[in-house]
Amino acid sequence: MKIWKRVRAAWPPGWSRRAADTETEPEAPMEGEAGARHLALARESLRELLDDPRVPETVRAGLAEDYERVRRLLDKLEEGTVHVAVFGRVSVGKSALLNALLGAERFAVSPLHGETRVSAHAQWDAFDAGGVYLIDTPGINEVDGEERARLAHDVAAESDVVLFVVDGDLTEVEFEALKQVAGEHAAVLLVLNKVDRYTADERERLSEVLARRVAGVLPEGRLVLASARPAERVRVRVDAEGRETESVERPPADITALEERLWAVLEVEGKTLAALNAGLFAGRLSERVTARVLEVKRELGERVIRMYSLAKGVAVGFNPLPGADLVAAVALDVSMVVHLGKVYGLPLSRAEAGRLVAVISGQLIALMGSAWAINLVASLLKLGSGGLSTLATGTAQGAVAWYATYVVGRAAERYLAAGKSWGEGGPKRRVREILDSLDRDSLLREAREELLARLRRAPAQE
Questions:
Q1: What integer pLDDT is reported at residue 127 of this predicted model?
Q2: Residue 305 within any structural domain of the chain
Q3: How far apart are CA 270 and CA 266, in angstroms?
Q4: Up-side HSE of residue 246: CA atoms within 13 Å toward CB?
Q5: What is the mean pLDDT of residues 301-309?
Q6: Are residues 162 and 104 located together in one domain of the fold?
Q7: Would you say residue 2 has pLDDT above 60?
Q8: Is the pTM of this model over 0.70?
Q9: Among 70, 248, 279, 282, which residue has the least CB neighbours within 10 Å?
């Protein structure tokens, strides 16, 4: 699955996956022909991911939520819309900020913590004839709000621009969340809301502190000050006769800087953000699908390896004909490798499998001389006693053969999982790594128990 590479290759020069990778904004608009190419590529990548026939149904079921998100992203690209989400902790004024942008009370605003319990959205007609949607999310630090925080992250992961809203210096929770969001999105604006609570000097000092804290996380120029819902003030009026009257008024919202900065981001990057964000998500899902498919293959490969290990242990340990066990051993190892090739979608001929078994066995002989010596001595005992010593030595010999085939299978599996490659260090290094990772005594004990159980069942079956 090469979706990630294709999406990355299509990025405009100077544009990076993380906003923090560049200190300046893109110099030229990415819309027009370039934007159309990005949209087409993203749609193609999402459709390819959804329709890939190589993905087993068990994998699709395990990643059902991710696949559903891909479908939503594809629908969004087909509609040509851009999503702008607010993100931040409880009571920093996220809903109020969206209402100010809309010029209407569309999102619930309450002094109570956690008023926004589910994500909500509204169309923003102020830009691109309504092709932009504003999305509200629950707070990330609500008490007992783990589910709401997860929802907020999910919504942000599907958005193209994120307004990370704070009302003061960053807390540790906010800073960690900001790093996470910035690592997933190209466009993140840090919005310092409720600035009407601070004096001019305090705003300046706070802006400097925030700029230092986010250096390396966000590029310069991504901090914006706003006052979405200024605090109410008491106004005193004096009439012509000197009589005073008081009234409580709320000053108008001050979001001009935010609107201008958001418009600039949307105008320069616009729907290309939607395409690239969708492509990035598709790439990450493709990696998860690949890992899950490989995990499924390994589970199936483990069953195949154990099946052939037992068959070889029986063939080698309890074959009454001297020397015939060695022929059976090689044949079973070759058959196992052919079977594993089919599991990993890399078919091998018997000749290819035989050469692979020879390479792995050669490394085993070099690294496990004593174990192979046990196998050889047991075979010689069978030869010298006309087969009478089979019951005395067969279990030990069969257990060694079981273990050896298990190692051969694991090594062949490693080779196939890497696309028929041994990688750096060659087969010797891979076989050594496998031997070091296995508990030989436990596996030999397990092999002996399986073989004895098989031996006990044999007379009863007769």
A1: 57
A2: no
A3: 4
A4: 4
A5: 92
A6: yes
A7: no
A8: no
A9: 248
